[in-house]
Design a protein that fits this description.
The chain has about 425 residues and is α+β, with helices and mostly antiparallel strands. The chain is built from twelve helices and 20 strands. The strands form three sheets. Strands 5, 6, 12, 13, 14, 15, 16, 17 and 20 form a nine-stranded mixed sheet that branches. Strands 1, 2, 8, 9, 10, 11, 18 and 19 form an eight-stranded mixed sheet that branches. Strand 13 and strand 14 form a beta hairpin. The C terminus is likely disordered. It binds flavin-adenine dinucleotide (FAD). Flavin-adenine dinucleotide binds next to helix 1, strand 3, strand 9, strand 12 and helix 9. The site of flavin-adenine dinucleotide has 32 residues, from helix 1, strand 3, strand 9, strand 12 and helix 9. GO terms for molecular function: 2-octaprenyl-6-methoxyphenol hydroxylase activity; FAD binding. This is FAD-binding domain-containing protein. Keywords: FAD, Flavoprotein, Membrane, Monooxygenase, Oxidoreductase, Transmembrane, Transmembrane helix. Its cofactor is FAD. Pathway: Cofactor biosynthesis; ubiquinone biosynthesis.
Length: about 425
């Protein structure tokens, strides 16, 4: 409910109801359903209108999307809204990894790993609508939007918050969960700094129509201009207007930066130039790099660029305060791991909070928050290193590195354990010992 009367005190206040804060609230809601844990979620933006039921994503051709790992599906099941999300997502049954102009290639099949899909592609509009509908349907959570946290005063046992846009101006909480995104004004206010690394690259995002159906295949292709991912999307249009869609994420060098060590000096493939190409030239350039796996590219939609960087907060916990999602770590979008990692963090934090509440411990105590960091720091470090290293390795055209990665791709196909490891990493299951289904 977005207009529920507020209390002066909560156990948990979540500042930010985006994909991470909202998912975390729903996880808490499910895990704490037999307890009296008081949870308030505030978001500065109004809630989306619920129009995403029965698989109707309401999407246009250019809808933006997110790749959800198999592990994220399990988390959404735990949070109780996978069944509402499922009708509008596209299953990834097969991932093909290849290197343009080289011999290495590998395929990962869902059947080999014993799951129905390696992951899913969800249109952001659909994901947001389903999430926000579930938040509004919850009778235990208090959701207040639009309302923002304006000021944080740390206390010995929590924090006092100044709120704008709600029926109360001041609210006390035992734990403040900061989920206010990558440009967090609240972190700046607390003096929490960020370490940032720029890759000198940009991700070009665009939906593309192909002559052939993708049949649930996702493609990761390493090219002279950088890695290129094509994710399977649902068809757009009906009858003779029907188009088979793929979601392209293409990493390209900044127009004004070097192309990278050992890279072909192909200035015509810089992000700005590719963005500015007329549609027919863009399709030709893309077809050369992607190849003919899905037949002719018949249409390319609106293109946009996202600068690639890695941003990590220097502190994730303080007494009574914890950072979650993009505010804690904003990853290179090409690896498709940002939300997936944040959901694993969210699950670990929610489980620890509910346990603490059951035993009468303050959920904002350093003991609980340190346990959260201990549980997640390995997964965070591995995921960050995995996306950072693969980006640097695969966007470099030096012959020795090209040979190394080609042997790697080849060996992965010949050696099932290595392939299994890669699959688990891509599926967001690397932190769990077995696939529990
Ligand atoms: C191009 C691109 C492609 C990506 N693809 C993938 C992918 O395939 N797979 C994947 O796992 N990840 C992907 N990601 C990453 C993923 O999108 C992010 O990890 C995720 O959206 C982060 O969500 P968040 O809730 O932390 O932040 P946000 O979505 O920024 O949400 C922050 C929320 O906080 C609210 N807010 C801000 N300030 C306040 C305040 N003071 N008080 C209250 N509320 C406040 C805002 O209104 C907003 O709703 C991609 C990212 C990009 C850029």
């Amino acid at each position: 409910m977005t207009d529920k009367k507020l209390n002066a005190e909560y156990d948990i206040v979540i500042a930010g109801g985006g994909l991470v804060g909202g998912s975390f609230a729903l996880l808490l809601d499910q895990l704490a359903r037999h307890s009296d844990l008081r949870v308030l979620l505030l978001d500065a933006a109004p809630m989306a209108k619920p129009d995403a039921k029965n698989g109707d994503t309401g999407a246009d051709f250019d809808a933006r999307s997110t790749a959800l790992s198999w592990g994220s599906r399990l988390i959404y099941e735990q949070a109780g809204f996978w069944s509402a999300l499922a009708p509008g997502v596209t299953a990834i049954r097969d991932i093909q990894v290849s290197d343009r102009g080289h011999f290495g290639a590998t395929r990962l099949h869902s059947a080999e790993v014993g799951v129905e899909a390696l992951g899913y592609v969800a249109e952001n509009h659909h994901l947001t609508c389903v999430l926000q509908q579930a938040l509004q349907d919850s009778s235990r959570l208090t959701v207040c939007a639009p309302a923002s946290v304006e000021h944080i005063q740390p206390l010995s046992d929590g924090a006092m918050l100044t709120i704008k846009g709600a029926s109360l101006d001041n609210i006390r909480t035992r734990l403040l969960v900061l989920a206010d995104g990558g440009r967090s004004g609240l972190c700046r206010q607390l003096g929490i700094t960020m370490q940032q690394k720029h890759y000198g690259q940009q991700a070009l995002i665009c939906n593309v129509a192909f002559a052939n159906d993708h049949r649930g295949q996702a493609f990761e292709r390493f090219t002279d201009t950088g890695p290129l991912a094509m994710l399977p999307l649902s068809d757009h249009g009906v009858g003779r207007e029907r188009q088979h869609r793929g979601a392209l994420v293409w990493t390209l060098a900044d127009s004004d930066s070097n192309q990278g060590e050992g890279k072909s000096d192909n200035a015509s493939c810089s992000a700005e130039r590719i963005l500015a190409l007329p549609e027919a030239d863009f399709i030709d350039t893309l077809q050369q790099r992607f190849g003919w796996r899905l037949g002719r590219i018949t249409h390319a939609g609106a293109r946009s660029l996202f600068p690639l960087s890695l941003t990590v907060a220097t502190e994730q916990i303080r007494p009574g305060i914890v950072l979650l999602g993009n505010v804690a770590h904003t990853l290179h979008p090409v690896a498709g791991q940002g939300l997936n990692l944040a959901l694993r963090d969210a699950r670990a934090l929610a489980e620890l909070i509910v346990n603490a509440h059951q035993t009468g411990e303050n959920p904002g105590s350093m003991a609980v928050l340190q346990a959260f960091l201990a549980a997640q720091s390995g997964d965070q470090a591995n995921t960050i290193a995995f996306s950072d290293l693969t980006t640097r390795l695969f966007s470099n055209a030096r012959p020795t590195l090209a040979l190394g990665r080609n042997l790697g791709l080849l060996l992965m196909d010949l050696m099932p354990p290595a392939k299994g490891w890669f699959a688990r990493q891509a599926m967001g299951m690397a932190d769990r010992k077995s696939i529990r289904r």
